[in-house]
Specification:
This protein is an alpha+beta fold. Helices cover 40% and strands 13% of the residues.
Length: 203
């Protein structure tokens, strides 16, 4: 891992929303929340991070459909007020060591290792978890092979020397392991550090 610059909560949230806007699982919920707020899709597709009103709208959206800042859902016990955000690059070898969140589906898919490399092997072998199709992984892998660019992955860790967990981008991380020859080396990501990350149940 190489830190290449500072980031912040507003940039992390904007990237998170970009990553999930077209998600098969969460995209519809995000779009409903966006529609309910009567906001333009450019709030997500063309974020202006210098606009405090926009940043507040995006933070509210993430709270409404994912629980950010509300101690709910993915962000239950999440130390959002104690995280410093950075831009960083990961080499391919480092990316393979990034873990999934400690969530039942991802632990079972990876044979309890929480590593996308192991999940990719199981997906190729036809392993199905909770009757959920693996098609989304193959679709993402094919898009990567075609050269499509994706929003940056968002990672978390206690510090630069602790295990790294993916906050947003599980499908994309898995897809990279299905197409390892196409992993950008290095790959730019957003990463947050917090000494209180152990309080988050999914770390």
């Amino acid at each position: 891992m190489k830190l290449i610059g500072k980031s912040n909560e507003a940039e992390m949230i904007a990237e998170f929303l970009k990553g999930e806007y077209n998600s098969e699982r969460f995209g519809s919920e995000l779009k409903k929340a966006l529609s309910a707020s009567k906001a333009d899709t450019k709030l997500i597709s063309e974020p202006n991070l210098a606009d405090k009103k926009e940043n507040a709208q995006r933070k509210k959206l993430l709270g409404e459909y994912r629980g950010y800042g509300r101690n709910k859902g993915l962000f239950e016990n999440f130390p959002d007020k104690n995280i410093t955000w950075h831009k960083a690059t990961f080499r391919s070898s480092e990316l393979k060591k990034v873990k999934y969140i400690n969530y039942n589906y991802w632990t079972k898919l990876s044979d309890e290792t929480r590593l996308a490399t192991d999940a990719a092997k199981n997906i190729l072998a036809g392993k199905i978890i909770f009757k959920q199709s693996n098609d989304r992984f193959f679709k993402a892998a094919e898009a990567i092979k075609r050269g499509r660019s994706f929003p940056r992955l968002i990672f978390l860790s206690r510090d630069e020397n602790s295990p790294v967990v993916v906050l947003e981008g599980h499908v994309r991380l898995t897809a990279y392991m299905l197409a390892p020859e196409r992993i950008p080396d290095p790959l730019e990501v957003i990463i947050g550090f917090s000494e209180k990350l152990d309080e988050w149940n999914l770390y």
